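User: Please predict the structure of the protein below. I'd like the answer in structure-token form so I can feed it into my own downstream comparison script.

Assistant: Understood. Taking the following sequence of 223 residues as input:
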Amino acid sequence: MIFLVEDDNSIRELMIYALDSAGFKAAGFQCGADFFAAMERETPELVMLDIMLPGENGIDILKRLKSCAATAEIPVIMASAKGTEYDKVTGLNLGADDYLAKPFGMMEMVSRVKAVLRRSRPKEGRVLRLGELEMNAAEHIVSVGGERTALTLKEYELLQLFMENIGKAFTREQLLQRVWGADYIGETRTVDVHIGTLRSKLGSMGGCIETVRGVGYRMEAKL
């Protein structure tokens, strides 16, 4: 099930129709109050949020989702008619997994939804460890010093890429392609924002993600 919050009735119905036609189940809501009421009855696989909404705006809704342990790991795609860098960076910095600038095509929207859901589904894999940092790919759990750390989908994928390639430097363009997808059109600033929040969430282990001047980033073991 995909939940979308969009106050424009015609756009909301068009989005639902496009998602239904693509084989998804979708439900739309005009405001945050209706959305959270539905969340009490069912937990969606993915949420799409417009930023400009009556009452509680999309950014405030995103903050509520990411501050609650029960909903923090639900993938979120933000949408905004503004299309400004500030809106985009704010949403991504707060934990959004992707961003769509209005007006966007329905085929693009469905493609982004598929990509986010594909990357968010748990994959079987071994447990990766680096010092106090542990990643259980099978259970999609990251912990530092035995304490579980909640990461967004993109933060998780960045960390997994680094932990599977200790010592290897990646350019920002390579990280965009590997984590956001080959068809992603965005700015390298997106990578910097996610690296910053990932380092912060990893606490004492955040320093293992090093900035390689003139190149990008890599993860190194700290003795």
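That's the full token string. The chain is about 40% helix and 20% strand.
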